[in-house]
Specification:
single chain, mainly beta, two-stranded antiparallel ribbon, two-stranded antiparallel sheet, rod-shaped
């Protein structure tokens, strides 16, 4: 091609608006409002249900007692018992006997 056949140089400018996201980058940035980061390998700040991928807030699941086992350990009044609760996130529980007595 000869120089006379070339088109005039054109320029094109385009604006692109974007908002930087910190949530999900694998780095906990509390100064950016994160309480956890779902990709943080140390799982810092994660709740027992993990870390929300949209808000970078801890997900906390309430304790659930699926099975309560009560075993009597003596036979004379007052009776002593051992109670065991199995389920999710259960490390403490209370038994309300309905007569004003609450056992923990």
């Amino acid at each position: 091609m000869s120089p006379g056949n070339l088109a005039a140089e054109r320029t094109h400018n385009e604006c692109v608006f974007f908002e930087p996201r910190y949530c999900g980058d694998g780095i906990l940035q509390t100064d950016k409002g994160e309480s956890c980061d779902p990709r943080d390998p140390n799982r810092t700040g994660h709740g027992n249900g993990g870390c929300d991928t949209n808000t970078c807030r801890a997900i906390t699941i309430a304790p659930v007692c699926k099975s309560l086992t009560v075993n009597k350990t003596t036979g004379t009044a007052p009776t002593s018992v051992v109670a065991t609760c199995t389920g999710f996130n259960v490390d403490r529980f209370e038994i309300d006997c309905g007569n004003g007595q609450v056992f923990t």
